[in-house]
Amino acid sequence: MAVTFSVNGTSVTIDAPAATPLLWVIREQVKLTGTKFGCGAGLCGACMIHIDGERAFSCQVQLSEVSGRSVKTIEGLSGDSSHPVQKAWLAENVPQCGYCQSGQIMSAAALLAKNPKPSRDEIVEHMSTNICRCGTYPRIVRAIQRASREA
Amino acid sequence: MTALQQDYRNAQQVMNRRGFMVGAAGLTFGFSLGLLETGTPVGNGVAQAATGNGAVMNPWVTIASDGTVAIISPATEMGQGSTTSLPLIIAEELDADWSKVRIVPAPPIEAIYGNPGFYGSMYTAGSATVTGYFKVLRQFGAQVRRVLLDNAARHWSVPVEELTTEPNVVVHLKSGRRMGYGEIAGFASVPEKAPEIAPEHLKQPSRFRLIGKDVMRSELPSKVNGSARYSIDVQVPDMLYGAVLRAPIEGSSPEKVDDAKSRAITGVVKVVKFPFGVGVVAQTPWAAFAAKNALTVTWSRDGKAQGFDSDEAFETYTAVARGTVANPVEIGEKVGDAPGSFDKATTFMEGEYRCDYAYHAQMEPLNALASVSPAGDTAEIWCGTQSQPMAVDATAKALGIPTDKVVLHDMLMGGGFGRRGNRDQEFVVDAVLLSKEVKRPVKVMWTREDDVHNGRFRPLSVHILRAGFDPDGSPIAWHHRYATDNAGKFQDPLKYNGPWKQRDVISIAGADIPSYAIPNRLAEHFPIDTGIRVVALRGIGFVANKFATEVFIDEIAYKRGIDPLAWRLELLKNAPRARKVVESVAAMAKWDRKRDDRGLGLAYIDYSGTSIAGIAEVSVDRRTGQIRVSNFWVAIDQGIAVQPDNIIAQTESSVVYGLGLSLTERISIKHGEVQESNFYDYTVMRNRDVPEIHVEVIATDNHPTGVGQMATPLVGPALSNAVAALTGARVRHSPLLPERVLAVMKA
């Protein structure tokens, strides 16, 4: 079925089975590959995106569910890596292998959009949806605190 | 291909026999690390390139007329940072302006780019990259700088001794004249023989501008905006998607395949039976995954691990380690005369320790893209590999073509941890074979479930430790017998039967305790061929062996009624660097401060020249046995700190990885088959599980040694020792699962 929705402000129409995971539509058809495949089960957060401003595991969202809705991926967070979270991520040298970091950044941005001054515990709890096998967790927390301060 | 890479192609084609060239790309310098079979560094720099046995000359450094300095990086990148650190070492001695440096990935030619400190391989592993290349790259950088100085001296007709350099500029202080490296590259001539640089003419560490000062890793900006490219991200025209259902037991084959349901799925192009499994090719990833899941396969029952049960294996391995079941033995450490010294000892202690299988869980499920020509005689591959030549060799072998018919695009790795360094590179070959079948490019992606089920694990192990003491209570004899799966043989038969001399160098490692003043020591390793898929995993044999030895050392302290810190300092009396890290970490943790409801545990290890000590602070839920880690302190002496903040980052990373291995991560095998599937039953550390991690980097002027995994083996023993300090109960089985903690607390 053809489904129309917006990705990073641009309208797209995708013809694919209704149950197709949004993750694969974004990666292979819209060709925005910053959103990653990690577990396919909503357990790791590598596929995290925003749908109408709320974070979502794109591997758990079916194409048909986003009809008429607004999707934001890491590529749409800012045009020039100028989002406070992205700047803080570089300032704290967060990424190592980097594979999970799009999802981490999208989770962090969603947190700060709702709660600009989160406590440390709130940060840790919110970010525990996202696995980082390189163990960059201490830096993720520091970077979110920095982004919160500097935003 | 970037313009610089094209320049490199051109440069390679016209490079002259001296290893230098002046061409379109500017001034190019090459040298060969060569003589790889001996495993010894050559370090003849450019001189070696002039006589490089007719090998194809490849450049290491090219200086363009605009001052851009292109430097090769022979390491692949999985987040450890050595693709930045290696060029930085050359740039330091060359006195290059780091902002003008461009890093170019090396082509897969081991004779030129192999690590002189790591079997001459292009194999990014073992935390061996910076330490292995450091000397030769400094020497080479200094030689290139000297050629630039000589050219400027001739140009200005001044003695070369009057010249010095600033970043990318040669300076004549007397006259105030300055000339950029790019300008010199425009007219430079090159000597027949490389200039000799005496070690004392290398930069003094106090004058380093880049080494020891943090620079941003070159690929970091791409990792905050989604533009970093991993092989899973690559798309090429006309591409299809593949998935492979692999035999659950290594060596088994598909006997009967019912693919009717798979073929009925829209978009499925082909189902292919291989000796090792069944592959499907489809128009979309989800069709490929669905088709793989819809297969019904009857597997042959001839895999070696048929019937294997990991719980029962502990009993078998214990019998092997205790010598009641015969098994080949290899020596992990032999100092003095341990058997004879046990005869002289008057008191004894014994301990038995166990470790489960563990899974790498790199975040990017394994995948590769291959494009095999319709005739099957050439191939292009995109993959994230820890060894570029292994990926090329495996592809060539699968197709029966020469290696020079394979073009490799080595991509960023979404984690490695040892999973991408196996000789057969099976995750690349999957794509190659399917592309050959359908005569179109195929990207094969493993699902997370495939990645777990087809995992190649850290071996299971059992350790028997014995110590003998003289009448004063001093340890005079030490004997460590340990049985593990043979990881070396399974991971890399070629190296196993070659430079490893049929020793399981992966599992054997880390049983030695060189800094401890115990005069007679014997470590004996019993590698067992189980048929289970086992390879190196971050920390290799150190993780299991240090769990056993550092817990046992702690148990001796308790038995003798000595503080574990004082006991280690006594054992380390002849090892000043080791004492320093132990004293430092004790000060960081305030070891002597009494804590309510929290225990401290200490561990010290020597790891490939790096001295590292850690202290865990834990509490235990006495009802559930759940361990909560509140703080983890580490002090590390790795010699020269090439990139200090990266050392901290790698150490934090190693601690988190060690926490997972020591607290929750366990692979179990029943009937030869892996039981776990995804992150719901193989649980790794999340943000909420991680303590405050405090790292002190103790930089010394010693040769830099490894940092990428050195803290991982600290964690298990530090946790077990902390639990013992708090509760008096000793957990001798890693991971320290709640039920295991409860069991020893009740005992």
Secondary-structure blueprint:
The complex is a heterodimer of chains A (151) and B (747).
Chain A: E1 2-7, E2 10-15, H1 22-29, E3 48-51, E4 54-57, E5 70-72, H2 84-91, H3 101-114, H4 120-127, H5 137-150
Parallel strand pairs in A: 1-5
Antiparallel strand pairs in A: 1-2, 3-4, 3-5
Helix pairs in contact in A: 2-5
Chain B: H1 3-14, E1 20-23, E2 26-30, H2 45-50, E3 59-63, E4 69-73, H3 82-94, E5 101-105, H4 110-113, H5 129-156, E6 163-166, E7 169-172, E8 177-180, H6 181-187, E9 240-246, E10 254-258, H7 260-263, E11 268-274, E12 277-282, H8 285-293, E13 296-299, H9 310-322, E14 330-335, H10 338-344, E15 347-355, E16 367-372, E17 379-383, H11 388-399, E18 406-410, H12 426-438, E19 442-445, H13 448-453, E20 461-469, E21 475-485, H14 487-491, H15 493-496, H16 505-508, E22 520-528, H17 540-560, H18 564-571, H19 576-589, E23 599-607, E24 610-620, E25 627-637, H20 644-663, E26 669-670, E27 673-674, E28 692-697, H21 712-727, E29 733-734, H22 738-746
Parallel strand pairs in B: 4-5, 9-19, 15-29, 17-18, 21-22, 25-28
Antiparallel strand pairs in B: 1-2, 2-3, 3-4, 6-7, 7-8, 9-12, 10-13, 11-12, 14-22, 15-20, 16-17, 16-19, 20-21, 23-24, 24-25, 26-27
Helix pairs in contact in B: 3-5, 11-12, 17-21, 20-21
What does this structure look like?
The complex is a heterodimer of chains A (151) and B (747). With 151 residues, chain A is α+β, with helices and mostly antiparallel strands. Chain A is globular, with a radius of gyration of 15 Å. Helix content of chain A is 34%, strand content 15%. The mean pLDDT of chain A is 97. Chain A has two domains: 2-76, Ubiquitin-like (UB roll) (Roll); 84-150, [2Fe-2S]-binding domain (DNA polymerase, domain 1, Orthogonal Bundle). In chain A, strands 2-1-5-3-4 form a five-stranded mixed sheet, with helices on both faces. Chain B is α+β, with helices and mostly antiparallel strands. Chain B folds into three domains: 3-218, Aldehyde oxidase/xanthine dehydrogenase, molybdopterin binding domain (Aldehyde Oxidoreductase, domain 4, 2-Layer Sandwich), CATH 3.30.365; 231-303 and 366-445, Aldehyde oxidase/xanthine dehydrogenase, molybdopterin binding domain (Aldehyde Oxidoreductase, domain 4), CATH 3.30.365; 310-357 and 457-746, Aldehyde Oxidoreductase, domain 4. Helix content of chain B is 31%, strand content 23%. A seven-stranded mixed sheet of chain B has the order 11-12-9-19-16-17-18, with helices on both faces. In chain B, strand 16 (367-372) and strand 17 (379-383) form a beta hairpin. In chain B, helix 3 (82-94) runs parallel beside helix 5 (129-156), helix 11 runs parallel beside helix 12 and helix 17 runs parallel beside helix 21 (712-727). The longest helix of chain B has 28 residues, at 129-156. Mean pLDDT of chain B is 92; it is low at 1-25 and 34-57.
